[in-house]
């Protein structure tokens, strides 16, 4: 008989804690998360027998169904098998790991790169490998959970500064002893808000106070900069950023993540970061998919052009309906409703009209910022955008 937290072990205190957790109860009653998609083709998914428009995916460029990406993944599996079956330090790197790392480093304008099997792991490692006890980390209050976990595992002291605020960063940095080793941790594009970091100003202050800096560009990569080189390239400050980390599950239509920087920094990561040393390597199919997508980024500019065309139209539709998009500047577009119940009803109304989104409520977002998290893609057609507009108009009238 299978183990169940909710049956045989329900009397166990740990099991009881899980059973009584409010979010678990919400999941069991209303099921707003963890939906089982029966099939997918581009931006169309099938859920409970209905075809729906996917408006919550981070496949910004729509490359997960690009024939070159699919064929590269298939060919790599036939050549290398399905898995490297362990960590690179124990059973070796593969040629495709090195090739992908060299291509990513060159694309990002950095000397070297290391790829992990998950973007979460890359961003966590990009902090935890370089900070240690006695250091002080200056962190934007709105950074992703993976960065907070990296901060926690580093055992460094953390000082938060107001979201995307150079003035508050300066106030916090100036309050610290001058000889304290410091690290600034920020994102290039904040995926919940859609904000682009005020990168030049933040880096100027970090440099003034001698802060090592780490930038998570998971949602800027493939979206901003020349050919999608990201937020650093967008502002022309690549050489001023020590570590660029991110995910390959967004614009690169794969899974895994990367950490890029000077060669000495990446070698330090490989020899001192236990999260890198002891984690299983990226699979051949996913590495090949990422490389193929990276090639498409550089040879088929129409995908980025279509993305921004769709984003501009989508934002205009939402604003015409009087919806609060939290001043989003990117394809990650929140619809702020400010109330948990209204969020649920709005989400359900969109679903009734065949548009799939997700809910983000406090504490995932600040109190009063409960929202529907949406993401536009180059893969959305004009007809789908029409239907999305109709669905939002229906939800506004109903909720």
Tell me the total number of β-strands.
16
Query: Considering the protein shown, what is the CATH homologous superfamily of the largest domain?
Result: Type I PLP-dependent aspartate aminotransferase-like (Major domain)
* Total domains: 2
- Structural category: alpha/beta
Helix content: 40-55%
Biggest sheet descriptor: 7 strands, mixed
Task: Show unreliable segments.
Answer: 1-6
Classify the beta-strand content into a percent band: 15-25%
The name of the CATH architecture of the largest domain is: 3-Layer(aba) Sandwich
Strand order of the largest sheet: 4-12-11-10-7-5-6
Query: Compute the gyration radius: what is it?
Result: 22 Å
According to CATH, the fold-level topology of the largest domain is: Aspartate Aminotransferase, domain 2
What is the end-to-end distance? 45 Å
Shape: globular
Q: Mind telling me the CATH class of the largest domain? A: Alpha Beta
Count of discrete alpha- or pi-helical segments spanning 4 or more residues = 16
| Rounded average pLDDT | 94
